[in-house]
Each structure stands twice: as structure tokens, then as C-alpha cells.
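Quick bug: Short-chain dehydrogenase output formatted oddly.
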Amino acid sequence: MDLHLQNKNALVCGSTQGIGKATAILLAKEGVNVTLIARNEEKLKAVLEELNACQFERSREQCHSYLVADFSKPEELRKVIENSNLQFHILVNNTGGPRSGAILDATLDEFQQAFSQHLLCNHILVQAVVPFMKTQCFGRIINVISTSVKEPIPGLGVSNTIRNAVGNWSKTLAEEIGSHGITVNNVLPGFTETVRLSEIIKTKAKNENKSIEQMTEIMKSYSPAKRFAKPEETASAIVFLASEKASYINGINLPVDGGRTKSL
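Here's what came back:
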């Protein structure tokens, strides 16, 4: 399927590992000019080399780049984006989740930090990219959040709260800018083979007095697929939503979880 993404420009957040990195590579293979953004410059350089090695065969003039920004500092992010003077057709909001733990044990600082890192940074980026998208009558904003938007996940109190805030922000935004050819959708990954999942498994294993191997098998059993997702599987859904083919899909929450989420 030709997704008609050649020569589009994309900003992919959290793109040095996991779902963000897989999305950046897959977009590059579809002919997109990808700008990576994360806080670790050495890792950004390494991923940039991978992007340059997978040039799309029908688009020989692709230009990939990166920006360095720490999403725990929203105003720093704002300055980086404003100084870049880059224009994007596609924005993939993707940031590592808050620390796990019971909601009753969460501090106010944890809520404030997560709200800032996720919702406020998403909002800063959207305000930066939407004016150009409007001039193109084309825009794709995809937020990588969590299945907790549909069903809260035990032990992820702060994350459950903030992910739902992002979900409702996203739905409101979809209503406001849909008439300009811009879609806003959320992708809800299930348990995916990432550094984040490894941390969650270790924490749950410790809390429940089980080995990491035992907890891994228990968590795999939650999905009808009986396995964890590969980052590339979630990336494929993101890239489709970024394409011309998904032009009438707007304001949705799309689980990519192997069927784990029980609600429709």
C-alpha cells in the first residue's frame, strides 16, 4: 500500500529507543523527512545514522535531523522548537511514562511533573506545528499514550491519571482543527518490549515477591496473543494514522495491545 508520505516532514518525540525509534525508522522508509527529538544527543546521533541508512528508494532527497530537548523542562522545549524554524506535517507525541506505584502514595510533585512532561509539552508542540499544517490543509497529530485511557492499569496511578488528561485534550483538539484537514488520534500500546516495560516488570515482581521470569509470563498471559508487542507493531499503526489513507480517522483511541483491553 502506498501511504503517500513521500517528502512529508515529521517530528518524532522520544525517538532514541522503543516505539519512538521504531516509528522514526518506519516513517523514513516511507519517504518522510524525520526530525528526531529527545534529550540524549549521543543516542540521537546514533538513530540519525540508522535513518540515513534506510533512505526510501523513490525519494533520494530525504533530509533527516534531530533536536535536543528535555521534556521535563517545557520552556526549554518551547525555545528549541521556536529556534529550529522547522515545519512539520506530522507530529508524534511520545514520552516515557511516570514512575509506577499506588496512586495514594503519589506525591504532588509526581503529578505536576507528569502533567508538565506529557500534556504541557504536547500542547507546546501542537501550538508550534498547527499553523503550518493549516496552510497545507494536511496535518497528523498522533499521541502515544496507554490503554489506561480505557481501563486503568493497577500500580500505575499517576500514569492512569495523566494519560486520561492527554486523551481528553486530544479529543477536544480533534474537534477544533478537524476542518483544516488535520487529524488528532491516540495510539494506546499494550505491553511492548521496551525499557519502560522492563522497569514495570521488575517493580511488580518485587512488590508481589515473584521472580522477573514469573512476572514476565504472568503479564504475557494478560493478552490473548500471549506475548508482548514488538515496537515495530505499534509503529506500523502510528505510520498508517499519519498517512493519507487515514484521512477520515479522527479523534479516536486505537489500542495496539493484542486484544488485552476488554472494553470496546
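Actually, after a second look the formatting is fine. The two ends are 27 Å apart (CA to CA). Closing.
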